[in-house]
Write a structure and sequence with these properties.
Distance between the termini: 31 Å
Order of helices and strands: HHHHHHHEEHEHEEEHHEEEEEE
Helix content: 40-55%
Strand content: 15-25%
Structural class: alpha+beta
Number of helices: 11
Strand order of the largest sheet: 1-2-4-3
Number of domains: 3
Number of strands: 12
């Protein structure tokens, strides 16, 4: 997880700035979390009564131009419940007929009486048919509107999930700022003294120890005046001696190379295991590109990420879907999002941003080469077969692919 560190030149840790930073991060996290709750509340509002209310309002509005119709007064009366009963039939049968209207009225002991005059009978027949057409048209238009409302609710639910994930990630960053500052105070003092004896000016450093015993040390030193002045090898020796662990350089950002005013190094306990990766790829006949994408990279916490995504179909469109999924996964895990949140955000982002149906599987393995543990995450991916001498274990997916819709 990428950390945020507060430092000032001269090596004095600025506690006031650190406290302000934590406060600001938590405030942003709470604001985003509140937005997430608002979207979530909007997405879970009941639909049935809303749809019925909208249907009745639309029907009454259209009836204003049909005041001479024989059924106008009955349908416009909100207290008799006639339009509500009509809506229930529409939900059940998807449309309503003239016979349905007549039966509803008869069940209410209300009858449409004909007259001996032919023209009058024709007028009654025409009025009833007009009402039937009006009711069915209003219901159909309402269904289309409801589909859009449902899509909006789904989008709000997706946005709520995204904001919630971002809120959790910011909270985790705020919590991580002071990790190791107090727990390893003596070790930090010793490292500063040893570095000072070697003319290495430490501006700030942070020591973190995971449950498996692995150390991660972030070191900030004065900006280099020339290439090779960082003395990372000497720092490795001093860290290993102080922490009584085999510490090696994991990542370096030199001020001269990065155009910064400070040098930053990340040191970690040496891994106890090695990994060897083989990759084979093939394109579908007639296609210029494969629909699969993959990534192999070391994360900031020292673990190794291996992932492959299979886009739906083949060719450029499939490549686009799988590439999007892989890039998002890599960026999120590298930016401090936990694995579960990352998978949720990938699913929701692909769902809300695409114009066409498109799916991309995710087959992810995160290896801890220090402890020898391996964690699998699958999103619609094929089974994984793990061979250990003569034994073969199978890891299966129980989730759907990441979806664009």
């Amino acid at each position: 997880m990428e950390k945020i560190y507060i430092y000032q030149y001269g090596g004095t840790y600025n506690l006031e700035n650190n406290t302000n930073m934590i406060y600001k991060l938590n405030t942003v996290s709470e604001t985003i979390n509140e937005m997430s709750r608002n979207y979530k509340e909007e997405s879970i509002k009941p639909e049935g009564e809303e749809n019925k209310k909208a249907f009745i309002e639309n029907l009454e509005e259209k009836l204003e131009t049909m005041q001479e119709n024989i059924l106008h007064d009955e349908l416009i009366d909100e207290e008799n419940g006639l339009t509500s009963e009509i809506f229930d039939i529409l939900v059940d049968k998807n449309n309503i007929s003239k016979e349905d209207i007549i039966k509803i009225l008869e069940d209410r002991n209300e009858y449409i009486l004909g007259f001996e005059d032919f023209d009058t009978n024709l007028k009654i027949e025409e009025d009833v048919n007009k009402i039937v057409r009006l009711i069915n048209d209003t219901y159909k238009i309402g269904k289309v509107n409801n589909l859009w409302k449902q899509k909006m609710k789904t989008s709000k639910k997706v946005i709520s999930s995204q904001l919630d994930g971002v809120s959790r990630a910011i909270t985790d960053v705020a919590k991580s700022i002071n990790i190791g500052k107090d727990d390893f105070e003596e070790e930090r003092k010793e490292i500063r003294i040893l570095c000072g004896q070697k003319d290495i000016e430490i501006i700030d450093l942070n020591i973190e120890k995971y449950r498996n015993g692995k150390y991660i040390v972030h070191v900030y030193t004065k900006a280099c005046k020339e290439v090779g002045e960082c003395k990372t090898e000497e720092i490795e020796v001093m860290l290993s001696k102080t922490l009584r662990s085999d510490i090696i350089l994991q990542k370096e950002e030199c001020s001269l190379k990065e155009g910064q005013n400070i040098c930053k190094q990340i040191y970690m306990s040496r891994d106890k295991f090695n990994i060897q990766i083989g990759l084979a790829a093939a394109k579908k006949d007639g296609m210029m590109v494969s629909g699969d994408s993959n990534v192999q990279t070391r994360l900031d916490d020292g673990k190794y990420l291996i992932a492959i995504s299979d886009g739906m179909g083949s060719g450029p469109e499939a490549k686009k879907s799988s590439g999007t999924a892989i890039k998002m996964l890599n960026r999120m895990l590298s930016s401090g999002f936990d694995k579960d949140t990352s998978m949720e955000l990938i699913n929701s982002s692909m769902y809300i941003n695409s114009k066409e149906d498109s799916y991309a599987t995710l087959d992810v393995a995160i290896l801890d080469l220090f402890s020898g543990n391996m964690e699998f995450m699958k999103n619609g991916a094929c089974p994984t077969f793990i061979k250990n001498k003569k034994d073969v274990n199978v890891v299966k997916s129980v989730s759907l692919p990441a979806r664009n819709t």
